[in-house]
Each structure stands twice: as structure tokens, then as C-alpha cells.
């Protein structure tokens, strides 16, 4: 049985990998992860790549008790092609292939849901341009604050407004200032009291990992200002670590320095 699978896997790899002499631009890794919530997934599941890149699937999860006895395999469907097995955890710690044509490659574990919705699957979108440096999936089971970058339940990332806008005006060119007076986080709400130097708006922002998941703004006069913010309802089921960002914008649309504080909410 194992001999048949091994031969099939090697034949599949031969069909997917270009002829000898082709050089991959970079290697882009995908990690198998058996999560604390007993789900099985690949991370990342949406992989941008360039023709000639190597995609590497990693099966081993050192230090993850949920992954020690878990079995995974990886099958790939090339653009316009048929499913072909590349490897399995009982055959080796990794499996890889070179993506030799533009288009979308689907990949999946046949043991855990295949290509069905909610299954252990993903895609590699291959183009002719370089999509940027590869992202190392790391060891998510060692990070209690790990955020799944492909979790569909998370809100989409909001525009990054960290940098103050460029303002061309005559008159006020002085950025406002914000002084933190108090921050409290009872249950699922962060309550903030600050002192602002100018009238305008006060912005509170919650970030989970690299994503902005909530933003609140209030009109503010110069002096003490109170405001509060909550995470989205779908993120209130358990305790999570958020980065709270606070800044003011004056009437000339000049932003203050951003104050950042870690807070724990949920559960």
C-alpha cells in the first residue's frame, strides 16, 4: 500500500516539475497546522507566486502535541490539470514542486476535507511578475497570539492611516498632542480618557495582529476627552491580545503622534 502511494507521489512530482535546468526564483513555504480548536489547516492558504518559484509544503510540527500523531498528505491541481499527489507526512517531512505556468494551482490534504469548503486546502496564484518576498509561516503553534492571515471570519483590513496625510495650507501647521490619562478594559470594552491640545477628532483603533479590526472616532474639544471601543462581535468569544492605538486629528487635518498600548479583551 505504501509502495503504491510512494510511486504515485514520485510520478506526480515528475509531472509537475519542469525539466532539469529550470531555476526557481524563490521558495515559498506552506505549513501544516493542527490547531488548538482541533481544526486542520495550511498556512498561508493564499500564496502569490511567480512562474519558476518553488512551493514547499511542510508536514512536521515540532513541539505541537496535536500534530505529533497527525497524518497529512498534499495533492495539487495545476491550471487545467488533474489532481496529483506530491507527498505525505508518512513519506517525508516536506513535499515541493516548481510552478511552471501562470494560473491558479489548488492544493489540499485528501485526509482532511480535500477541496470541500472548510477543508484543509488552499491555492497558489501564479503570475509572471514578482509578487514580493516569500512569507515564512513559522511555527504558529508556539504563538498564543497567532492570527490566521486567511481566516474569513476576520474583517478585511482597513486602510492604513498610521501616517499623517500631507497637508498644503496656510495657517495652522502644528500637530496636535495627546496625553493619556487612563485606560480601562472591562470585559469587551476599552475605555480611554485623554487630554488633547486642539479641537478636532479623536480616533481609537484596535489591531489584531497586523489587521485593523475596529475603529471609533469622536468629536473633541481641547481638554479632557473620553471615548471607548469594542472588538467586533465575532471576536468576543475568547480572550485576545489587541494593540490599541490612539491619536488626534485637528481641524487642519494634521494628525498627532500615535500612542499604542496592549490590551486583553474577550472571554
Automatic annotation (TrEMBL):
Keyword Chloroplast: no
Transmembrane segments: none
Gene3D superfamilies the record matches: Cupredoxins - blue copper proteins
SUPFAM superfamilies linked to this entry: Cupredoxins
Position of the signal peptide: 1-24
Keyword entries, A-Z: Signal
Classification via CDD domains: Cupredoxin (cd00920)
InterPro entries: Cupredoxin
Protein name per the record: Cupredoxin domain-containing protein
Natural source organism: Solirubrobacter ginsenosidimutans
Amino acid at each position: 500500500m505504501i509502495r503504491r502511494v510512494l510511486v504515485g507521489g514520485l510520478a506526480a512530482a515528475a509531472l509537475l516539475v519542469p525539466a532539469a535546468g529550470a531555476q526557481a526564483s524563490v521558495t515559498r513555504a506552506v505549513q501544516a497546522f493542527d490547531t488548538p480548536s482541533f481544526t486542520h489547516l495550511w498556512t498561508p492558504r493564499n500564496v502569490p507566486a511567480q512562474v519558476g518559484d518553488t512551493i514547499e509544503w511542510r508536514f512536521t510540527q515540532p513541539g505541537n502535541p496535536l500534530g505529533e500523531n497527525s497524518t497529512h498528505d498534499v495533492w495539487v491541481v495545476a491550471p487545467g490539470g488533474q489532481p496529483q499527489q506530491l507527498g505525505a507526512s508518512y513519506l517525508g517531512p516536506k513535499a515541493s514542486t516548481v510552478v511552471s505556468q501562470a494560473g491558479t494551482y489548488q492544493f489540499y490534504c485528501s485526509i482532511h476535507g480535500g477541496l470541500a469548503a472548510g477543508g484543509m486546502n488552499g491555492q497558489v496564484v501564479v503570475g509572471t511578475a514578482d509578487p514580493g518576498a516569500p512569507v515564512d509561516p513559522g511555527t504558529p503553534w508556539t504563538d498564543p497570539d497567532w492570527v490566521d492571515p486567511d481566516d474569513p471570519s476576520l474583517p478585511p483590513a482597513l486602510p492604513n492611516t498610521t501616517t499623517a496625510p500631507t497637508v498644503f495650507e496656510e495657517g495652522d501647521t502644528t500637530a496636535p498632542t495627546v496625553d493619556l490619562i487612563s485606560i480601562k478594559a472591562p470585559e469587551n470594552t476599552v475605555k480611554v480618557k485623554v487630554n488633547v491640545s486642539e479641537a478636532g477628532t479623536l480616533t481609537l483603533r484596535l489591531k489584531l495582529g497586523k489587521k485593523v479590526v475596529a475603529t471609533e472616532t469622536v468629536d473633541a474639544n481641547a481638554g479632557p476627552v473620553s471615548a471607548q471601543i469594542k472588538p467586533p462581535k465575532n471576536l468576543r468569544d475568547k480572550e485576545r491580545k489587541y494593540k490599541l492605538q490612539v491619536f488626534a486629528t485637528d481641524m487642519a487635518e494634521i494628525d498627532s503622534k500615535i500612542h499604542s498600548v496592549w490590551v486583553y479583551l474577550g472571554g
